[in-house]
Amino acid sequence: QVRLVESGGGLVQPGGSLRLSCAASGLTFSSYIMNWYRQAPGQERELVATISTAGGTTKYADSVNGRFTISRDNAKKTVYLQMNSLKPEDTAVYYCSAGRRYWGQGTQVTVSS
Fold first, then answer.
1. Nearest to 77 by CA among 2, 35, 23
2. What is the pLDDT of residue 98?
3. pLDDT confidence band for 15 (50 / 70 / 90)
4. Is 56 left (phi over 0), alpha (psi -120 to 50) or beta?
5. How far apart are CA 104 and CA 74, in angstroms?
6. How many CA within 13 A on the CB side of residue 9?
7. How many helices (H) and strands (E) does the chain have?
8. What 8-state DSSP symbol labels residue 14?
9. Residues 6+ apart with CB under 8 A from 42
10. pLDDT confidence of 66, banded at 50, 70, 90?
């Protein structure tokens, strides 16, 4: 059974930082391109960041480029999203996805003073 479990969300003030983690099990993690998505209330799910299987290539949405960093540890079967300089508009539920085939349950990130 494939499982993706996100953690690390929470409440943070504008300008602050959070690091999300997504631990995978039940799949050959190193074979999957990994993605972070987010969905704010009333909005469509948005692709935030993507990382290649070996981690050598990353891509970001324009809205987070320069502030967020995606990384992965294939030995730990975990993908990370380091989020810096957070803004209120970053408030959303953040999901990790393996190859857009498997999805986690999401973790809430709220940026507010």
1. 23
2. 98
3. very high
4. alpha
5. 17
6. 19
7. 0, 11
8. T
9. none
10. very high
